[in-house]
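During the reporting period the student researcher (J.K.) took over the structure-prediction task from the postdoctoral fellow and processed the backlog of single-chain submissions. One of the processed entries is reproduced below for the supervisory committee.
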Amino acid sequence: MVKFPEGFLWGGATAANQLEGAFDQGGRGLANVDLVPTGPDRYPIITGHMKHFSFDEDHFYPAKEAIDFYHRYKEDIALFAEMGFKAYRMSIAWSRIFPKGDELEPNEDGLAFYQSVFEELHKYGIEPIVTITHFDMPMHLIHEYGGWRNRKLIDFYERLVTTLFTRYKDLVTYWITFNEINMILHAPFMGAGIVFNEGENEEEIKYTAAHHELLASALATKIAHQINPNNKLGCMIAAGQYYPHTHNPADVRLAQIMDQENYFFIDVQSRGVYPNYALRRLAAQGIQIPFEKGDEELLKENTVDFISFSYYSSRVASADPKVNQQTEGNIFASIKNEYLKSSEWGWQIDPLGFRITMNELYDRYQKPLFVVENGLGAADKLDQNGRIEDDYRIAYLKAHIEEMGKSIEEDGIPVIGYTSWGCIDLVSAGTGEMKKRYGYIYVDRDNEGKGTFKRIKKKSFDWYKQVIATNGSNLENI
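J.K. obtained the following C-alpha cells:
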C-alpha cells in the first residue's frame, strides 16, 4: 500500500475546445480548433499541410458543440465534487477573452464565464489548474499574422495573460502556459496556428514558432509572479520515454536523440537556456533561432515553478530502416513494443514506463512534477442495464497510479497531483471522435454529433471516488 502525501491534488483534466462547445456564443471568436473536422482530412489540417480556414458542408466539426460544458458546467462540476476532486485542470479559450486576439480590451462575457466556473469549483473546495493555451488560438491571429511564426503574437499573449492573472488573482494559483508545447513539432497548426506554404523550410518555421512560445511562456511567468507572488507557473510536455529497440548502440543513441527532441522545450522553460545539443543540431540544418536583444535574459530569469506532463505510453526507437512496424492512432509514431499490450487505438500500455518517465523528468530538472494527463481511451458501451462496466479503465488507472505512488514513496519524487485525462467524455484531440472515451462520466454523444448530452456515471466513477477518499491507499476494484 502506497502512501500519497497529504494535500495531494487528485482530480481530472479537460480542454476548452474539447468540451465547451458554444463556439459562437458569449462573444467568442472563431478559433483554429473549431475548424478541425473529423475524418481523413483532420491529420493534414492539424499538421499544417492543408489550409482549411472556413466551415463547409463536407465535414463534421465536433468542437462546435463538443459536450456543451458551456451550458452544463454546474452539473458537471457537481459530479466532479461527488467524486471528491481536489483539483480540476481546465483551459481558457483565448477567443472567449479576446475574440480576434489583437483587441486592446477583453470580452467581458468570456471573463465572466470563467469567473463563474472558478467560483463554482471553489464552492466545492476544488482547486482550478488552468492551462492558458491548450491547442487553441483565434483564427484572426492566423489570418492576419501567420500564427506563432510571427513575433507579434508575444504581445497579444502578454495582453491575454495580464488580463487573466489580474482578473483571477484570488481564484487561480496554478497556471500552465502551453499545453504539450512539444506538439509544435508534430501538429503545428493545432500547436501554433502554423500553415505551411509550398517550398518553405518547415523545420525552421516550427522552431521559430517554438522560440516565440518559449519567450511568451517566460514573459507569462514573470508577469504572474509580479501580480501575485503566490502564483505557481508550470510548463507542460507530452511525455513518454523512448526505449532503444535493441542493445545496438545506434538504437540507444537514436532513443536519446528522440527524447532530447521532446525535452528541448522543457530544458529551456525549466533551465532558462537553450541546450547545446539543440543549438548544434539546428545550426547543422541551417536553422537560426531568431534571438533578439533581451531574449536570453527573459528566458534565464523566468523559469517555471513545476513540470507538468501528459503520459499515455512509452515509445520505441530503431536506427534500422527495416524495422518499421508502427503503433496506430497516435500523433507520435512509434515502433511497436513486443512486451506491451495496446489499447483499442493502438497506444502501448506501459505503467512501468510511467515511473521511468517520472524519474527521467525529475532527474533532469529537480522540480516538482504534476501529472496533468493520463488515461485510457476506449469505446465504452452501455450494457442492458444502462451501465458502463469499464473494468479495463480501472485496471489501466490502478496500474499507473501504483507506479506513480512508487515514484513518490520509493524514488523520492515530489509530485503535486494527478489529474487524469478526460474525466468526463469529450472530443478526442487526435481523432476528433467521441467514440474514444476517457471519462468516469459517459456523455450521450456520438461521432456524428447525435445524442442527448445526458451524463451517466460509469463504474470507474465510484472507483475513483474511493481512490480519492482514501488518498490513494485503496486502489482495488469495487
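The committee noted the following: DSSP finds 15 helices and 14 strands in the chain.
J.K. will present the remaining backlog at the next meeting.
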